[in-house]
Every structure is written in structure tokens, then in C-alpha cells.
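User: What would this chain look like folded?
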Amino acid sequence: MFEPFESDRQIDKKKVTRNAAIARLAKFIEKHLCTTDWTLLADMAGVGHILDAPRHERVRRAQSFGDQDYPSAVSSFLQEVFDADEQIGLFLVGEIVQQENPYDDPLTEEAKGELTQILSMFGSEGIEAIVPNFPSPVTSTTAQSCPKPQAA
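Assistant: Here's the prediction, encoded as C-alpha cells.
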């Protein structure tokens, strides 16, 4: 039987929006920032202990194998970081999107637009609050994505 919605169990709309932003960012990371150094970033943000927890072991494993659950693993990790401390979560997001890796192609204008939209979902006054000096120079205008590992 359907139970009516109880007013004392309100949906936290800010958290729903934040989790949607995290999920979209996780898919963006899979597509464009596939060489993210999770250990380095988590340690830098002081959340290495969260990443090292058994419940988040899939972040690095799924990344290295190009598994389909990589975005879900990233999303779960980032949600836990945000639940622990929103400011650290925002700092970590900023570091993720600012990372420079010679193995990743530069972001295209289209990818930058997508990233700008995702970052705006975090509820800041603009992406400058999360990512100072964004955008970085673009050298390519064609869509770039991370290659999937070849099956052996």
C-alpha cells in the first residue's frame, strides 16, 4: 500500500542537486580526466583514509581496468567526502578539474562548457569559487575522450 509523504521526512533538495552534480562530474571524469591520480588528490585533500576504505577500492581498480562501474565508484567516494565536509569536497572537485596530466588531451570548448555547467550545479556563485583561473588554454576543438583499455 502507498504511504503518504510525511512532512518530517523532507527531501534535502540541496543534497539531491549536489549528488546530481557529483554523478555528472564522475561521468565527465571517466570521459575526459581518465588519468586522475586519486591517491595524490585524496591525500592532498586529507581524505586518503576515505579513499583507502574497502568500500571505495573500486575507484582505483575500476579506473585502471576501464570498468563500467568507474563513474559509480567515483560518485560514491565524492559523496562521502561531501557528507563529511562540504568545503573539502569543493576543494577536491577544484583540484580534480585543475589537474594537468600529459596523458589527457586538453579539454575542448564543448567539454569546458559541459564542465562549467556541472560545476555551477555545486551551488557556488560561479566556478571561480571552486576553480580559480578557469578556463585553461584549449588546443583542440574536436571532442576528446579517454581510451578504453584493450581486452587481453
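DSSP finds eight helices and no strands in the chain. If you want, I can go into more detail on any region.
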